[in-house]
Each structure stands twice: as structure tokens, then as C-alpha cells.
Amino acid sequence: MNTSTFSAQVRENNNMAVIDLVGLINAEADQPFKQAYEEADGMDFDTIALNFAGVDYINSTGIALIVELLAMARKSHKRLVVYGLSEHYLEIFQITRLADFMDIYENESTTFTIEAGN
């Protein structure tokens, strides 16, 4: 496991806001993750994608943060989708039932291909 700190960068791709997540999602990720979400929310797209390809580790506080972002997305009528989860974290999303509330894709090109078809 990499011991890198957390960072989140927001960009646009195919009429979606994408948040590229890198490092550890734990208590220290709270503020930068929420700031990135607010920036993405302000881009006025219906869908926000969370890119987990650069994430090294998610602890229980990180899962709670993702749940909080999901609630924020629902409140602002945004669709939250994720991609780039490792097999381990895909299983965690299924066990915690996060997968019941957001669409999960394998990678960015799959996400945008499917989104373009909607």
C-alpha cells in the first residue's frame, strides 16, 4: 500500500464532472474530497463520476465520507457514478450496499460510452 496523502482533481469529460481521486481516503481526505465535490456540483452537469483508479486505500471513515457525498448528490438531484475500483473495493461497495445507490463501471471509457447512450 502506498502511503500517499489524498488529492482530488475535478475535470469535465463528455458532459460529466469527473473527480480524479488519488491516495488514501480517510479522515484527512474529508475537506479536499468535499471541496472537489462542491466544485464538480457547480459545473452544472447531471452526473458526477468518481474515479477511484488512483486510490490506494479506503478506511471506514472514507466509506462514511462517500456515503455523505452520495447524500449530497441525491439532495442536489445529481447522479453519482464510480469507476476504477479494485476488486477488493468493488466487493466493499457491494457489502456496504453503496453499489445499490450508484452505478459502478470498470473504467472511464466504459462509463462515458454508457452515459452517452442514455
Count of all domains: 1
Number of separate helices: 4
How helix-rich are the residues, as a percent range? 25-40%
CATH superfamily: STAS domain
Strand portion = 25-35%
3D shape: globular
**Average pLDDT for all residues:** 91
- Unreliable residue stretches: none
**CATH architectural group:** 2-Layer Sandwich
Tell me the CATH topology: Transcription Regulator spoIIAA
- By oligomeric state, this entry counts as single chain
Give a count of the beta strands, DSSP E runs of length 2 or more: 5
State the separation between the terminal residues, measured CA to CA: 37 Å
Strand order of the largest sheet: 1-2-3-4-5
Radius of gyration: 13 Å
Order of helices and strands: EEHEHEHEH
User: Structural class per helix/strand content?
Assistant: alpha/beta
Biggest β-sheet: count, sense, barrel? Answer: 5 strands, mixed
What features would you highlight for this structure?
118 residues, alpha/beta, Transcription Regulator spoIIAA, 5-stranded mixed β-sheet, 4 helices
Describe what you observe in this structure.
- By secondary structure, this protein is α/β, with parallel strands linked by helices.
- It has a single domain, classed as Transcription Regulator spoIIAA, CATH 3.30.750.
- Helix content is 40%, strand content 31%.
- The chain has four helices and five strands, in the order ββαβαβαβα.
- It has helices at residues 30-41, 60-75, 87-95, 108-117; strands at 7-13, 16-25, 47-58, 79-83, 103-105.
- Strands 1-2-3-4-5 form a five-stranded mixed β-sheet.
- A hairpin with a 2-residue loop joins β1 (7-13) and β2 (16-25).
- α1 (30-41) runs parallel beside α2.
- The longest helix has 16 residues, at 60-75.
